[in-house]
Amino acid sequence: MEPGMGVRGRPGRPKPKQEIDLYSTPEGAQVIDNPVRRAILAALHERERTFEEVVLLVGRAKSTVSVHLQELAAVGMVGSRADPDDSRRKVFYLTGDLVASLSPEERLAGDLAAYAGAYRPGMGDPFEFYRLAFRTIRIALMHEGIVLDPLLTRAGKGVGEELYPALANPDTEHFCTKIARFWEEHHLGRVEVERQDPLTLLVYDCFECADLPVTGRPACAFDSGILGALFSRHYNRSAAAIETRCYSMGFDHCRFEITLEGS
Which residue in 236, 185, 247, 241 sits closest to 213, CA to CA? Predict the structure, then answer.
């Protein structure tokens, strides 16, 4: 064991449930929020290690560590080779590197403090306040393991149904222009049409996810519901807004492909 190491590794290792780590790999960025995997990768980030060393540093059962190592290897984050001193053992190593760590609580607290510090009676921005409030609720529920996506999608569909008459236009280009104007006027983001076939929309400064932690998964279930309902009414045919890029996936925009049932 290296000097200064306890059974569970060095002080200051990633703290479970407080941070999210972003690693680069040959296959692209990978987001890690599982505490066991974060501890394994933190150990390998220091240097290559044998299986026994990883188990000792992580402080979990061998079977648990073995399963996580296999899954990390399957997604291309961890590699292994024979130990030159003992061919019966494997030496594990990272295939990429740690890019960043994000602490949602610290970031959120900082943004709230900045807003409160800049606030003056009559000069507050209600849109910014409600966006902070929305983000606070999302992050709190995410940390409790509560997934809101199905509920947000249904709520978005309801909003889209009610909103459609105000934006309706038989011409798809004009319809998209009215959607973009509504999004901008209501501080929901800046909408651009990337292409027509399939119809693909880009949303910048998305109110729903621009400030959420990077998780590697789409986070705009509410927007997807609204857009799905709008285009279902527009085409008079069941449509879905499939999010293929998102701020929470590490992009600087969200991307929605409008797909029609049966297409």
Answer: 247
Do residues 51 and 72 both lie within one domain? yes
Question: Omega of the bond prior to 84 within 30 degrees of 0, cis?
Answer: no
Domain range for 44 is: 20-102
Written as one letter, the residue type at 5 is M
3-state secondary structure (DSSP) of residue 25: coil
CATH of the domain at 151: 3.30.1380.20
- Report residue 84's pLDDT band, with 50, 70 and 90 as the boundaries: confident
CB 204 within 8 A of CB 192: yes
Cα dihedral 170/171/175/177 (nearest 10)? -160
Q: Is residue 202 part of a domain?
A: yes
Q: For the chain, give the percent of residues with pLDDT over 90.
A: 42
Domain-terminating residue out of 146, 176, 200: 146
Q: Is 40:58 a contact under the CB 8 Å cutoff?
A: yes
pLDDT in tens, 145-197: 556 778 889 899 999 999 999 999 999 999 999 999 999 998 889 999 999 99
Number of structural domains (the chain) is 3
pLDDT surpassing 90 at residue 225: yes
- Could you give the CA distance from residue 100 to residue 159 in angstroms, rounded to a whole number? 36
| Residue 10 falls inside a structural domain | no
